[in-house]
Amino acid sequence: MESLIYDSNASLRQLLDTGFQMPIHFAAVGTNGSVVAGTYRRASRGKGFDCRITAQNLSPEGLTAPVNIMYVDRRGEAALVVLRPSQHEQAPSPPIV
Asked: Domain of 64?
């Protein structure tokens, strides 16, 4: 099983550039059924983001790829990011309609 490291900052910035509004909620689901959900807000200091995990159910191996991450902003706009072991950089898919 291949490990993935995902830095959500790039995806969050791209979503904000396309009109998403904070806060941005997310749910990540691995193929093994492991789930993590939470909310991103702008950091009180700096240009980054604060993340608060609101729900999780992880198996010992964590989230196994491919991992689907759904992002939803405060207006209900949504986008999907799929993390695959063969991809090194991820970009949000077109919004879910």
From this structure: 8-83
